[in-house]
Amino acid sequence: MSAAYLLAWLAAILPGIAVVLAISARGVRGRAAASTGQGIVLGLLATSAATSIAARSDTGHAWQHAAGWLMALALAGAAIAVYRQRAAPAVTARPRQKVEYWKMAIVALALASLVWRAWLLGSEVSMRPTYPWDAWDAWAVKSKTWFLIGHYAAFVAPVEWLRATAEVFSGPAWAYPSTLGWMQVFFASAAGGWIEPLVNLPWFALWIGLLLGHYGQWRALGVAWPRAAIFAYALGSLPLLDSHVALAGYADLWIATLFGFAVLAWLRWQERRERDQLLLALICAAVLPAVKLEGMIWCISLVAAIGFSALPVRWRWRAAGVTLALAVLLVMIGQSQVMFAAIGWVRSGSRVIDIPVIGRLAITWHGDAAIGVARGLFTQSNWHLLWWLLPPLLVWRWPVLRQSEALRLFGLLLLACFALLLFLFVLTDAAEWAESYTAVNRLVMQLVPAVISLAVLLLRDSSRPARSGDTVPASVPQSDPA
Fold first, then answer.
1. What percent of the chain has pLDDT over 70?
2. Distance of alpha carbon 95 from alpha carbon 53, whole angstroms
3. CA 182 to centroid of chain Cα atoms
4. Cβ neighbours around 278 below 10 Å, total
């Protein structure tokens, strides 16, 4: 591992951390962990953007071309963070939480297991080439092509490729977003060649960012640190999630991480009206379509939920009722088309719906697909006991869910997202993805970090967490900064 590669990593993650610190409120529990985790992920995505702008004509030296832009962003973010730190009022200490020794022992055991898992995952990524399936065929093909030919070249539909006279390429995933591909170009140039373990190492960093970011946000939302640490272990030990780290190259874990970050930031805005968190939620939502095509569906769902929560209470259900009435009317008409921003025309006909980011789907019931979805959630070893434990937890903590408006809206968002997946897999010809246990598990995984966040927030202390501006007497000892 060369010095250039290490410098490239600093240039990739420092801008994200600096920018998140710049927009984050001072004195909030978990700020360091949340800023580091979110900064790693957003910094890697900023690296992709900078590379796509600065290195199109010379992909062999991509990291040198992009590093200047990235470090300028890091310096700007750091300057804003320092200014806001000095301008903000002094934050007095909070009381230290006393934790029983047996809880500390359980947390220590869980964290030791998580460290061991990190070692295994890091070893897998560092020794394994890109797995020869979607990771190779859909995502790495563009980045490897651009790096080996030394410059950017367009990927077009096979028909256009046959008619082309210029240097263009094609493939099964020619229309997929190229965000992750430019990130791979950046690290390939820093490594000095297309060395796939080094090109794919960002997926291991993504896993670390996912856990740190969620832990920090849970702490900020009032979850005690032992409980937050245990749930971080629960999230980081999910078998399917870990397989997407070990078999690095897929886009689904990026979608899951960004969606999880967005909903937690949205929750903080709802509960505390922290404007910086609303900005962060919108940033994460806006990036989703640039990572994967179905990211547009989750982006629209998030923006709709944020807009719904921003409406006065008296207008919310009126707006929902009007939207539902229009949807029913369009279905009854039988032939309709609706223009959605950034998606295009969504057309529906007699038992057919055509969605640009998904394709043309025939609407009919698929019983075998419903069985496949149930088996994927409850009988396969992808999720430990997550889906067995979630229903009893919801029943047990139902009063908490009813009392918290923010959690109710969060639950409704997840319910709507799962309803979309069930519609896709059970009522359309995408059912084969559920019957073969392929995309059904990967798409469910995109919502799993958010589901675990709902569970941990239902189990947080009943007392409302203090706002970031709340203070306690200065004589109280400094609280745990974790």
1. 84
2. 48
3. 18
4. 18
- Give pLDDT tens digits for 311-366: 887 777 777 777 777 666 655 555 444 444 444 455 555 566 666 555 566 667 77
**pLDDT higher for 55 or 96?**
55
DSSP string, 155-193: B--HHHHHH--SS-B--TTTTS--HHHHHHHHHHHHHTS
Which pLDDT score, from 0 to 100, does residue 8 have?
94
CB 261 within 8 A of CB 280: yes
Residue type, 4: A
Q: DSSP letter string over 266-324?
A: HHHHHHH--HHHHHHHHHHHHHHHHH-TTHHHHHHHHHHHHHHHHS-HHHHHHHHHHHH
Secondary structure element (H or E) that encloses residue 360, with its range: strand 359-362
Residue pointed to by tokens 């059970």 = 426
What pLDDT does 463 receive? Answer: 46
- What's the average model confidence in pLDDT over 392-409? 92
Cα separation values, 131 from 24, 81, 137, 383, Å:
38, 40, 9, 22
Q: Which long-range contacts (CB under 8 A, 24 or more apart) does 110-113 make?
A: 110/229, 110/230, 110/233, 111/229, 111/233, 113/233, 113/237
Q: Which two tokens mark 281?
A: 């939620």
Q: Which two tokens stand for residue 357?
A: 């980011």
Strand residues in 213-351 grouped as ranges (E): 336-340, 344-349
Dihedral pair phi/psi, residue 476, rounded to 5°: -70, 140
* C-alpha to C-alpha distance for 233 and 408, rounded to whole angstroms: 25
Residue 386 backbone dihedrals phi, psi, to 5 degrees: -55, -50
Query: Phi and psi dihedrals of 155, rounded to 5?
Result: -105, 130
pLDDT score at 355: 61
Q: Which of 102-111, 182-191, 321-330 has the highest mean pLDDT?
A: 182-191
Q: In what order do the strands lie in the sheet with 336-340?
A: 336-340, 344-349, 352-355, 359-362
CA of residue 455 relative to chain centroid, distance: 17
Neighbours of 74 (CB within 10 A): 23
Residue 478, SS3?
A: coil
**pLDDT single digits (tens) 204-225:** 999 999 999 999 999 999 998 8
The percent of residues in the chain predicted with pLDDT above 90, rounded, is 54
pLDDT on residue 330: 56
Contacts of 414 by beta carbon, 8 Å cutoff, 6+ apart: 447, 450, 451, 454
Asked if 429 and 362 touch (Cβ cutoff 8 Å), the reply is: yes
Which residues partner with 349 through β-bridges?
352
Using the structure block, give the residue that is written with the tokens 């029913």. 328
The tokens of 374 are what? 């149930």
pLDDT in tens, 360-383: 666 677 778 888 888 888 988 889
316 Cβ neighbours under 8 A, 6+ residues apart: 308
Residue 368 in contact with residue 435, Cβ under 8 Å? Answer: yes
Residues 22/77, Cβ–Cβ less than 8 Å: yes
